[in-house]
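Thread: zinc ion complex, take 2
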Amino acid sequence: MLHAIASPHYWLTNCHIPTCLLDREFNVNASWEGIAAFDLEILDGKIHTVIPTNSAHRTSSHIEQIDLRQGMVLPCFIDMHTHLDKGHIWNRTPNLDGTFVNALQVVEVDRDRYWNSEDLYRRMEFGLKCSYAHGTKAIRTHLDCPFPQADISLDVFKALHQTWADRLTLQAVSLVTLDRFMGTEGKALADRIADLGAVLGGVAFLNPDIDIQLDRVFSLAKERQLDLDFHTDENDNPQSDTLLRVARAALRHEFTGRITCGHCCSLTVQDAIAVQETIALVKEAGIGIVSLPTCNLYLQDRKAGITPRWRGVTLMQELKAMGVEVAIAQDNCRDPFYSFGDGDLLQVFAMSVQIAHLDSPYGNWLQTITSTPARLMGLENTGKIGVGQPADLVICKARNFSELLSRPQSDRRIIRSGQLVDSTLPDYSELDDLIFREGV
Ligand SMILES: [Zn+2]
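Output below.
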């Protein structure tokens, strides 16, 4: 179908596009899955025209036509919650009992032993290569930021941000427990984050001082006009209500920046009244929720010798039904928190559909890996297909959702600024000298 594009001006015809991914409505008969056929005119790296296939309005037949034969076309993906700094260490630091507690412990050992600039740069770049090859165009990564690690990790991020600026939009978020913000260290970290133009964030563990810690983080963010991104309630404890506490803090501080909360697993084990109150306050505070279904499936409800009963994901359907913005992201990749993953948001979406029953109907759930995370990251007007948008597209042979989500779509083609990109995945052996060290 699509082998080479020589010209800056061509048509992609017979594209099957979920209408929820278009930036305007068309008067077309969509399939029951919400997919309709469109022709896209690409000119000088941008989408110049979007019209329904077989439209009488299409002209310029002398221009190259590439018939996609009803293959699905999606905007490039936006992965708004990753941990590039931890990525791909599984083989040197596995999590042998698969638990969250052990993951925390062994990552700390790995960090203290290995995370110098070279180790971080090469593993993080490996992660970027994977994501880029799978069709992602923007990534937010949390970075472990205890001092002195913060200095090393943030410098590496800065270098990668520059090197990859023409291919990926990168954002960083600090990751520390919230008690770290209380003293001068917290102020220093907030200043570093502000210098970098990054997002202030941390893990909101339930503890007696959690509200004071949240007040401090909100104050630091407000003073510097930073957005916020928290890990909240990544557990099955019904008492864990840090999402609610973040929402209350946001309202208390009349915070006007963007706020994202990730995980929010315990919401599913709380009673209906608590859930209702939390979702209502999350909505009122304008908090976006990012669910990390593959990582939750891996870590939650894990007990030795026991088959898990709980899927671990937050109340994606209920949150969305109440008007809360819900995104889906990769989270960890081949590290002690998740021993799988490749930065492939289409794979994450395929698993999420099955984990959280995001099908029948699919509705606009594809927005969870495209336009919704774009909005939550402040990348306005990104993640949709429309006139004037960059021609950044993922092109599949699959013609409908069943075909799309049943195969890994390894033969997808990626177009960036109208041109096919080399979407070869990096070879695992690139990292061998870092991962398979002598004596490790
Ligand atoms: Zn995370």
